[in-house]
């Protein structure tokens, strides 16, 4: 591809969202000043001077910040946008003050006087965009949030330099207006929408109906939230990505328009057609542009627009035809419905479809989609680029701009995991790819609030032209900032984690926890890991030795508990292997010993230590859902949605344990009963001389799983017990057994 074509495609995107008036500069500066006050408090905030000056980016057109002052004078933070200024502030706090901003809690002890910036420091990002979110994040992490939690997240986004993010709340309220206008009844609309915890897959056409209907007050609250989210994002100069029509429609459309041309797609996620097999409008049907433009007109009338829209027609669903002409027509129909309302529309497309079904998406099929939209008007998210990049096999998406994304996490699972070396090297490799059309970097996890070191690195890479030269040194500094003090053993622990759990490599790397702890028990569970478990246990020991010095740090207590949780996860695998071997060798006593430790000692100890931290409580998780409700019945409905997502995912365990978490209460009342039943059935099998029947066990254990989902038991939302004491108790019991091999 000629370089001039690449430049033209990227040039269009550089213009998107650029410019702005002096009024915009003042508004963005004021937004950053308010962030400083929220983050540091009014007193310390007075030591910072913030301004937004578009001229800083005059040469490159890319977000730029400039730092100066300090050392007795006010620290001056200037940015070409509000986001750039916030990123500059974060750089000063991180690199000059040793502070740390994180989901689990920030460490913001400022040295006095504030350190001086020795020479004026200017930094420009190498790319137009720093993107954030995955369509699934809306359901796995954001679904129950109130404005206070959204405000903290948008602050986190600004500080990490995010300037492009999904803003998809409230869209069902807009769809409801559209469907009513078209002639659907309220009951038909209610039947179509999924429940709140499953809206992401309703929005991508994978599901309908499951977990619904949406209560009336849900729509009102989401509209309110969306207005506040958009106002705050825009105040920083971020570009919110709004949803657009992808072609999926309720079955009831066929009643209103009997001649409409629709195709019913295949099932998804082991759901039957009661909940999947969505209806897709034919691209040539005249109803397609009517619905697409009506939705976007209603949406932008309500929320305004920043001209970038997301839509995914074939997410994890095979199109009805592999003919390039059909795929081009389906793509064109979506795009033309956008530009009919917004001539400046740019389509943000998740590239997951090309990665997820590579057998279907050959060169002709990929080319049909990418070529159906004018160059520069399609912005592709290379969603899983740290493990399975698509830009390489598509010649940089055949000239369409793309964002190199780190997906990292599936289902919002707990579990220490990362591919930090691949993440560190990946953006530079994509930037240097022949005729690269890379337009930015992105973080696209399905769920957040885990493995914060991975996101700290990825956010930093959005502002770096080169990889971090020494990850071991970087992770040591990360530990120092996170805990607010330099500690040799804490740094050593993190270096061990870097070379083990955070050192996954190759296409097999996936941030999806398949540990036996969180899987339905069977004799076929996989216990292999890509790292040496000794590194995890040694990191555990080192962190615990630092507790007398660091226990006052909330971030340290979180990490100590998280590493303990990981160590217990490793122990579960080892005791499971021991129990399985004993069963296969028909040795009842060793089976009872290993199974007894796993199900009656180790897992209860895990539940107890998790209960010592509010960030690992099922009660807190469910209380978030209940707090959204306006009645007891609605609260119960939301709680059941949440319980289903954490466990069965569908009515019969359709995507069983995909969104597994390790939370106090969930371990006690969901994972432990499964493991106790499994060990009992294995023991009975040996004692009675009858084979273990997995199919019968699955039927029986499903009753336990379903009982948890349907239960109305309430769980504590306040922590109980001392984390460090409880960790010591587990450590002193099991670490010596690991060392001497007597597990």
Question: What do these coordinates show?
Answer:
Residues 130-465 form the Alpha-N-acetylglucosaminidase tim-barrel domain. One of its GO terms (molecular function) is alpha-N-acetylglucosaminidase activity. It is an enzyme of class 3 (hydrolase). It catalyses: Hydrolysis of terminal non-reducing N-acetyl-D-glucosamine residues in N-acetyl-alpha-D-glucosaminides. The chain has 743 residues and is α/β, with parallel strands linked by helices. It has an eight-stranded parallel β-barrel with strand order 5-6-7-11-12-13-14-15. It has a four-stranded mixed beta sheet with strand order 1-3-2-4, covered by helices on one side. A three-stranded antiparallel beta sheet has the order 8-10-9, with no helix packed on it. Helix 7 (171-182) crosses helix 12 (287-303), helix 13 packs parallel to helix 15 and helix 24 runs antiparallel to helix 27 (666-688). The protein starts with a helix and ends with a helix. The model has no long low-confidence stretch (mean pLDDT 95).
Radius of gyration equals 26 Å
The stretches of 5 or more residues where confidence is low (pLDDT under 50) are: none
Largest sheet: 8 strands, parallel, barrel
Amount of helix: 40-55%
Structural class: alpha/beta
- C-alpha end-to-end distance: 60 Å
General shape: globular
Overall strand count: 15
> So how many helices?
29
Q: In what order do the strands lie side by side in the largest sheet? A: 5-6-7-11-12-13-14-15
Give the DSSP E fraction (strand runs of 2 or more residues).
5-15%
Average pLDDT: 95
